[in-house]
Amino acid sequence: AHLVGYVGPVSKKDLSRLPKSNPLFQIPKFHIGKTGIERELNSELMGVAGISRQEVNATGRVLRELARNKANPGIDIQLTVNTDLQKFSMYRMHNLSASAIILELKSGDILTMASTPSFNPNKILDGISKTEWANLLKDNMRPLSNKSVSDAYPPASLFKMIVAIAALDSGIIKHSDEIKCAGSYEVGDSKYHCWLGSGHGSVDLIKAIERSRDVYFYELAQRVGISLIAKTAKLFGLADNFDLPVSAISKGLIPDKKWKKTTLNSKWLLGDTLNAGIGQGYVLTTPLQIAVMTARLATGLAISPRLINARDGVRIPAPTFKEVSISSEALKKVQRAMINAVNEPSGTGYKSRITDPKFILAGKTGTA
Predict the structure, then answer these.
(1) Is the pLDDT of residue 135 over 80?
(2) pTM
(3) Are 365 and 153 contacting, i.e. CB atoms less than 8 angstroms apart?
(4) What's the chain's average pLDDT?
């Protein structure tokens, strides 16, 4: 429902944004797209009405046709979404407030964009009762929201790869350099805690990602600075709403000094940088942005997502992607850390590993 959307009668609000010359919109109960792809691609899906100009007599009898403009039917749109994967994702997330995105790396095709819980669009089409609509609106699991693109969340430790890439690529740190984690990090009168109160001891970058060590990234963020962190985040698709035919896409937020001054009229603090270093504070991302970030980390290519596979049976060629302007050596180190995070017993994602050696999973956990 979130992806495809639904249709409904033309409202006064719709008329203010639709072409006034189209006679279809004057027909009572004529339906147009209200949300999702139905709305964003409404003109393509709907087509153009034909017009017949006729001469009639005083009783309304047609005497002759004066002119005719042929109608053009709407086109068929084929999505990149894999139906079985979409259904499976929805099934696995049943009774959860959750989202799942699956991208195909060669093309950027969105194979799954699932958001739960969902809702029945047919009820809205047929005329939903006030009680049912009110229940949807007040449900704290927010079934009407497409969490995949419309909701932005703190990425938490998923953001640590961005900080690591920024540090490695700029030469601020080598992957073998160690930073000691004693369980907390003090700046002035403030203390920033690691998720493991006893600390992790001295660790290098790969171990820091593998075990998601906060103190390491507090120190790293301080060395790198928010400007370079923000610049690197944008290279990997964060703060991008992409060119997709989906309603209400959020850009999320990758903050910096200028943003805080302009938006909050406040000075950027070192504590803001430390919080950003572990993907919290002001940092917000959508599940789709995280999927794109991960795809770019996996390939080193500036992959962008796409949803349209074919128009009227004519397949749209897959795009070619440029390389992300980051050193391949920095990418390799972060990729190795993500492999370890899942496949090493001390890794935070070890429970999610795939034991079949033909399928090696790399990843990163994040808890906000």
Answers:
(1) yes
(2) 0.90
(3) no
(4) 92
